[in-house]
Design goal:
globular; 19 helices; 499 residues; eight-stranded mixed β-sheet; single chain; alpha/beta; Metallo-beta-lactamase, Chain A
Length: 499
């Protein structure tokens, strides 16, 4: 086990802040009857949750993800400070590390703070989704699919960055570049190498277990608790389903899909490693080759259609020869959505009360919809687990297509439901290149629905609520008091205590 060392200046400063805040508010930290403490590290866009379970006189710890989005101010220093705080809290001992999926805002800590996790922690087990098993076909398909997307986007960026590109093309390139903030620093090349390296480090920190839907984990060090695995699905079609139907599946409209033909052209060309400047650039275009004019023939001044060619060249908005670029922009927007759908989804259930803690990673619609087909040994169903959920870690920072509506949030019926959103809305909404409004996190319709379902009991990474807040109108006095006594707000994390 790692030896607890003297606190750094940053840690000592944090403890000073902590002491001041605890005096001002919550009695939860002095309660003796809590079963689990859920700590959400915050003030950035990314996921890092430390679960501490009471086991008699012992405390057993599970860490779920540790990452911050690329571009986060002082991101590396922040994530390293969180890793040190986790080490101090756990004395460097984690029973399990849960790595939900291979996205930078969930695994960057295993790169930026790799030395801390490798040298200062003893981690017994690492839990990952079956899709990370190199012996699984889907795991290899996922990586191939991502590389194909990146090849298409890189081709688009090369085209947009050419000398003489139009203002519209430059704006498109800026918008796509902004979306690449979801990648680790270094752009396209670093996306594969950087994230893979962080993921490899995380998966090597303990005894590795690949989990699949239908599994039930029972651990001697976690008595009275069963861990149900809901996703990711083993159905390939479900993994590929990243959008849903308006009003039934999601809390906002999905993106308008680009032409299927254009998407096919972009994907197939990227898969063959062909760029727009190659001799086979016609494969990118929306029409078959026999319908295309050779540029040299088209511009031949001796031909009767020459005047038409001049008019066509001058009206760039009517040209379709680069229509595939619109699809590339969409590919960038949906970059690695399949990886979100491979998120490991866990439901921690207390056997005595039936209460459930639900952690979904960034699972998108296909993952959620697949749960209706999951069968567990015994009588427990996914609907039972959702109905008894008292703590929901909201998926993908509150994005519109990462929480299922019908069959998902609407099934969560516990009057004690609390939601947690690891979000930094100000950072998410900052203008990014050609995206003037940034990213819609959290999505308004979803946030409204969660507020109604929880009666206002939402813990956010960018808010000190409920500290100093007014009582939500839908909570009675007893509910509000219980909630206040169950929350501890600190500068760098928020804790929720379950009794």
């Amino acid at each position: 086990m790692a030896t607890k060392k003297a606190a750094s200046t940053l840690t000592r400063a944090r403890k000073t802040t902590t002491t001041r805040r605890v005096k001002s508010s919550n009695a939860a930290t002095s309660r003796s009857d809590w079963k689990v403490r859920i700590r959400m590290y915050r003030k950035w866009l990314g996921d890092c949750f430390l679960l501490t379970f009471r086991n008699g006189a012992k405390e057993e710890h599970i860490l779920i993800d540790c990452g911050a989005l690329s571009g986060t101010p002082a991101g590396k220093a922040t994530i390293r400070a969180a890793a040190e705080d986790i080490r101090t809290t756990t004395d460097g001992a984690l029973r399990a590390l849960v790595v939900t999926h291979e996205h930078w805002d969930h695994v960057s800590g295993f790169s930026d703070a790799a030395d801390i996790f490798e040298d200062k922690f003893k981690i017994d087990e690492v839990w990952a989704a079956w899709t990370e098993d190199p012996n699984q076909t889907v795991a290899n398909e996922k990586k191939k699919q991502r590389l194909n997307q990146l090849a298409a986007i890189e081709a688009g960026l090369q085209h947009w960055n050419k000398p003489g590109s139009t203002e519209e093309q430059q704006q498109m390139g800026a918008a796509v570049t902004a979306l690449l903030d979801f990648m680790p620093p270094g752009g396209l090349a670093a996306f594969s190498d950087g994230t893979n390296t962080a993921m490899k480090t995380a998966l090597g920190l303990g005894k590795l277990q690949f989990l699949e839907p239908g599994d039930i984990l029972t651990k001697s060090w976690l008595p009275g608790i069963q861990v149900f695995v809901l996703g990711p699905p083993k159905d390939i079609k479900a993994l590929r389903n990243t959008t849903g139907n308006e009003d039934t599946d999601m809390y906002a409209l999905s993106l308008v899909a680009a032409s299927d033909a254009s998407l096919t052209q972009a994907f197939s060309a990227a898969a063959r490693g062909q760029l727009p400047d190659s001799d086979v650039q016609d494969t990118y275009r929306p029409f078959d080759r026999y319908l295309q004019w050779d540029e040299a023939v088209w511009e031949d001044q001796s031909q009767p259609w020459h005047s038409l060619s001049i008019s066509y060249a001058e009206e760039k908005d009517r040209r379709v020869d680069n229509d595939w670029l619109n699809s590339v922009a969409e590919l960038a927007l949906q970059l690695d959505s399949y990886t979100n759908n491979t998120s490991l989804v866990l439901a921690f259930q207390f056997e005595d009360s039936g209460d459930v803690l639900l952690f979904v990673g960034d699972a998108q619609i296909g993952n959620w919809l697949s749960w209706s087909n999951v069968k567990f040994k015994g009588k427990t169903t996914v609907s039972d687990l959702l109905a008894k959920t008292i703590f929901y870690k909201v998926g993908h920072h509150g994005s519109h297509n990462a929480t299922l509506k019908t069959g998902g949030l609407e099934v969560m019926q516990s009057p004690r439901l609390v939601a947690s959103i690891p979000v930094d809305q100000e950072f998410a909404h900052r203008p990014k290149g050609g995206c003037p409004n940034g990213w819609d996190m959290p999505a308004g319709p979803l946030l409204k629905a969660i507020t109604e379902k929880t009666k206002g009991r939402i813990l956010r990474g960018d808010s000190d609520f409920p500290q100093g807040a007014k009582q939500p109108s839908r909570l009675n006095d007893r509910e509000w008091k219980d909630f206040l006594n169950s929350v501890n707000v600190e500068e760098n994390y928020i804790e929720y205590f379950v009794s």
